[in-house]
Amino acid sequence: MSQIARKLIDENGVRTDGRKVDELRPIKITVGVLSNADGSAYIEQGKNKILAAVYGPREVHPRHLALSDRALLRCRYHMASFSVEERKTPAPSRRELEISKVIREALEPTIFLEQYPRTSIDLFVEVLQADGGTRCAGVTVASLALADAGIPMRDLVVACAAGKAEGQIVLDLNDVEDKDGESDVPVAFMPNLDAITLLQMDGLLTVEEFEKVLNLAVEGCRRIHALQKETLKAKYVAVKEEVEE
Amino acid sequence: MSSIMVSRIRQKQIAQLIASGKRLDGRGLTDYREIKIEPGIIERAEGSALVHIGKTEVLAGVKIETGEPFLDRPNEGVLTVNSEFVPLASPEFEAGPPGEESIELARVVDRGIRESKAIELGKLCIFPGKKVFVIFVDIYVLNHDGNLIDASAVAALAAILNTKMSNYEVKDEEVEIVPGFTQLPVVNYPIPVTFAEINGKLVVDPGLDEEEVMDARLTVAFEKGGKVCAMQKGGAGTFTKEQILEAVKIGRQKAEEIRKMVV
């Protein structure tokens, strides 16, 4: 397949979408986009368009799932049927169930769940358009939705993938690089605590290459983290101006 | 994931021992439990293997059928990995559709086999775009005593290595079975090694009681050349970059040792 497709990186080191190997896709994030949710956020990263919403802490349904010593964190990652080239059936696939689990586990370490026993915090990540790296963009945007909901957190969680395509180590893989590249390593990271909360890998990498990829992914996370902070600040600056008027 | 299975006092004991570099069952932090592999124990399956890691027992079986290829891979056979946490394996397992843990496990095992290109799927095509062989690898957990991912992946690999396909001929666009068998074309041998993080320390091959107290889990799979071919972090805890690189280093050596037992 990859032979017919055009090269992922040309002789000038330029990728299919015009980026350099260590460059992120353009990212746009907004918080507080859904009025019904307790917290929400929206991200565009390349052609990815993803919405996240948080409901809770609220009463747990069904009740028997409630935990006596902490809040129950639930996460549903879901792709819209029109988000990809071939229509995806709306029923959750095994892939979506696995991603729901890893996103939940990426965010669980940051939330003070013990402050809300017998409640649930429900997190919904809807992929409206997919362009590779949706689980990472999903973590980045979900963490902002949690912050927007005012849920106490130890740190923001930010995620970014790095990998290998056309023999080179690349940052923030897009859809074709993810499919036709040699390897993809999504990483979620808590920048202030220096802790990794999600790590997956497919493809083939030598131990040395893996170390480089991991370092690059963490570097990508740090850059996206700066955008996350700006976005949150911008929201409160707007609120302040409104109050002063 | 605290549970009723391990009492608080025992949880504390496990964590304290590990802090001093010891484990409840007497192993060192990087010691693997004894592995036993019994290939070919299900005659009705094209391939099978029962794997014991300590008291953990996992049975993998391979069935082969013909079916349609994926649209984007018209010239390749199809690999499907599925796992069942049957209720006889643990008081915590319940009958019903596969849960999150079971789906994750099957997908991690699948990832190792697929990404290392263990099976030459290109050799399993009958009519391009129309008919190919579908390899079903079904994993049954029979007794859960921790580290189901490694046990399942080793069982799956041993089962596919043990798989014999019926010979066939193509007559008028139909597939006809003829006498004789051929070995499934297996060319790589992915082996995962799973770590638990307990009290900030990495522990190889966690037992069930250790899994109950662990903060997080990390699986690293290696192909025969020593390259990493799959990875998965699980659990609500975190890892540092240094811990991950250490796990890769230790895992590579462990995978080598385990591979010698399977192949």
Succession of helices and strands of chain B: HEEEEHEEHEEEEHEEH
Over the alpha carbons, how many angstroms does the gyration radius of chain B reach? 20 Å
- Provide the gyration radius of chain A in Å: 18 Å
- In whole angstroms, the N-to-C terminal distance of chain B is 35 Å
Q: In what range is the share of β-strand residues of chain A?
A: 25-35%
Strand/helix succession of chain A: EEEEHEHEEHEEH
CATH fold call of chain B: Ribosomal Protein S5, domain 2
The CATH class of chain B turns out to be: Alpha Beta
Major sheet of chain A, described briefly? 5 strands, mixed
Which regions of chain A have little confidence, pLDDT < 50, spanning 5+ residues? none
Instruction: Say how many strands of chain B there are.
Output: 12
Tally of discrete structural domains of chain A: 1
Q: Strand tally of chain A, please? A: 9
What is the CATH architecture descriptor of chain B? Answer: 2-Layer Sandwich
**Spatial order of strands in the largest sheet of chain A:** 1-2-3-5-4
Largest interface: A-B, 34 and 36 residues
What global shape of chain A is seen? globular
The computed structural class of chain B is alpha+beta
CATH level-four homologous superfamily name of chain B:
GHMP Kinase, N-terminal domain
Oligomeric state = heterodimer
Strand residue percentage of chain B: 25-35%
Write the topology of this structure.
The complex is a heterodimer of chains A (245) and B (263).
Chain A: E1 27-31, E2 39-45, E3 48-59, E4 72-79, H1 94-107, E5 119-129, H2 134-148, E6 158-165, E7 168-171, H3 175-180, E8 183-190, E9 195-205, H4 207-244
Parallel strand pairs in A: 4-5
Antiparallel strand pairs in A: 1-2, 2-3, 3-5, 6-7, 6-8, 8-9
Chain B: H1 8-19, E1 35-39, E2 47-53, E3 56-67, E4 78-84, H2 100-115, E5 125-127, E6 131-143, H3 148-161, E7 164-171, E8 174-183, E9 191-198, E10 201-204, H4 208-213, E11 216-222, E12 228-234, H5 241-262
Parallel strand pairs in B: 4-6
Antiparallel strand pairs in B: 1-2, 2-3, 3-6, 5-6, 7-8, 9-10, 9-11, 11-12
Helix pairs in contact in B: 2-3
